[in-house]
Amino acid sequence: MSDMGSENKIDDVGWYNYDNQDQPLSASPSMQNHNHQHSKFLTLPTVLTLGRVAAVPLLVATFYADSWWGRTATTSIFIVAAITDWLDGYLARKMKLGTAFGAFLDPVADKLMVAAALILLCSRPLEVAMSGEVAWLFTVPATAIIGREITMSAVREWAASQNGKLLEAVAVNNLGKWKTATQMISLTILLATRDSSLGGSGILVPSGVILLYISAGLSVWSLAVYMSKIWKVLLK
């Protein structure tokens, strides 16, 4: 309905200027304000973030593609998503293009990409010498990481409805940044070597698994730190 209304306003302006050809063709203030809000909504960082959301189905499709290029495509999509995750935040700060919608969508896009990658890895358990497939090897860290993200999303939503001190308590800290870094590196390695066994591909697969467990440990640790800060604020 709002689009229809905008079209009607454009038509009205056009007919008005046709009947009054001595006056220059110009949009009404309401149209200019609408166009400004539209451009403010779809900023470059927001477009990059929307691209990450749109890339999630592509990640899934290429992961299960029965072709030589499937693994390369999956890994490339994840790497590009990780780069745009940094880039959209940098551009938003550098060019002052941050928006409320972008601030909301950015962590959603990150969580969707990471959760999709973890679930995909869980669907193809690694083979371990003498033991065969070990189903829990990815399931344990994946549960810890996804569970932490869901919990923190709920906690931050609740903190936003309370007071400023609670928001400060759940602000991103260095522990969370280390968690994200190890998470991205481990998932990139494991997606790139997904058809290998734990004893294959040299040290790549073991290092990817170790980093994933480190990331899961940091996830649980950072959650405990956040909850401790919140508890201290509530006790005051």
From TrEMBL:
It is a multi-pass membrane protein. It comes from the Eukaryota. It catalyses: a CDP-1,2-diacyl-sn-glycerol + sn-glycerol 3-phosphate = a 1,2-diacyl-sn-glycero-3-phospho-(1'-sn-glycero-3'-phosphate) + CMP + H(+). The keyword Transmembrane helix applies. Pathway: Phospholipid metabolism; phosphatidylglycerol biosynthesis; phosphatidylglycerol from CDP-diacylglycerol: step 1/2. GO terms for biological process: phosphatidylglycerol biosynthetic process; regulation of embryonic development. Keywords: Lipid biosynthesis, Lipid metabolism, Membrane, Phospholipid biosynthesis, Phospholipid metabolism, Transferase, Transmembrane, Transmembrane helix. GO terms for cellular component: chloroplast envelope; membrane. The chain crosses the membrane at residues 41-62, 68-87, 203-226. It is found in: Membrane. Its EC number is 2.7.8.5. This is CDP-diacylglycerol--glycerol-3-phosphate 1-phosphatidyltransferase. It comes from Salix brachista.
